Structure to design on (295 residues):
């Protein structure tokens, strides 16, 4: 049975300052964000009714918009309140959230400085991005054909819709070839990330991860690095060439959707999910649980 289309889910969506029925949260086909990629978004999760690192996500949404040369007409505090309202109204305490901001349809052309900026926030129940049975066993990754661009050619530190075009193409190709996802290199042929998640490797008890300067420095990535250091595990953020993967023992990926997911294979490279991967999976699961507020 096919999954229900996302435009037909039940519930409400926060849209430009008010809650509207799910099927009424629409935009015009001539919206600038659709034609020219002037659109930014966030992916985040709520656990037990509490949105994990809600402020950090709201702040990044605002920064992403600024990098695309527009200002979201709501404060970080207002965005955080709107997200909580959506989770509560939809009755989705354990939910995925998608705030999205875009230029409207007042002007059509590359320049659109007078277009209205819209903001919408949706929440829905969405389990692990990958097959739960494979998350600890380890998923299989293809090697993507497309590469993350030179940061001098794109606003690579923004979570901008247009930057995901090559990710969709790469993930589709990987899935057709029997893989769960694909690892992307950067414009200089160095290891970068997956199509929607950051990547980590383990060798001799030390974690190695690419420097996030031409792709998103994920909030989950930052969280996992902090959790590893709290455990006393050494973390090296550095340039990693593909031929170094031969010596890596473990591999895992991180993201709000993927959480922490083990990797067993990348093209011809093999990995065995081990103690560090399993420890950080557990630590992250504990970290995202709702924190009790002292009386």
């Amino acid at each position: 049975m096919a999954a229900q289309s996302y435009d037909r889910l039940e519930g409400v969506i926060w849209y430009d300052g008010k809650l509207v029925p799910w099927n009424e949260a629409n935009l015009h086909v001539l919206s600038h964000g659709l034609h020219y990629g002037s659109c930014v978004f966030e992916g985040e999760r709520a656990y037990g009714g509490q949105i994990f690192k809600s402020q950090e996500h709201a702040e990044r949404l605002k920064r992403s918009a600024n990098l695309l040369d527009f200002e979201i007409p709501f404060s970080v505090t207002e965005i955080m309140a709107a997200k909580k309202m959506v989770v509560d109204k939809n009755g989705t305490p354990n939910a995925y959230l998608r705030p999205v901001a875009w230029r409207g349809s007042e002007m059509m052309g590359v320049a659109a400085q007078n277009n209205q900026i819209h903001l919408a926030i949706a929440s829905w129940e969405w389990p692990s991005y990958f097959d739960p049975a494979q998350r600890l066993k380890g998923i299989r990754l293809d090697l993507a054909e497309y590469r993350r661009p030179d940061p001098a050619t794109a606003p690579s530190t923004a979570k901008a819709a247009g930057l995901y075009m090559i990710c969709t193409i790469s993930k589709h190709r990987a899935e057709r070839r029997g893989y769960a996802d694909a690892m992307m290199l950067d414009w200089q042929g160095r290891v970068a990330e997956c199509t929607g998640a950051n990547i980590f490797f383990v060798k001799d008890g030390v974690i190695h991860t690419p420097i996030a300067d031409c792709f998103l420095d994920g909030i989950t990535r930052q969280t996992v690095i902090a959790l590893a250091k709290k455990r006393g595990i050494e973390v090296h953020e550095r340039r990693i060439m593909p031929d170094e993967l031969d010596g890596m023992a473990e591999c895992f990926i991180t993201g709000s959707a993927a959480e922490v997911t083990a990797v067993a294979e990348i093209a011809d490279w093999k990995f065995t999910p081990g103690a560090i991967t399993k420890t950080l999976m557990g630590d992250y699961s504990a970290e995202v649980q709702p924190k009790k507020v002292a009386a």
User: Anything to note?
Assistant: The longest helix spans residues 76-90.
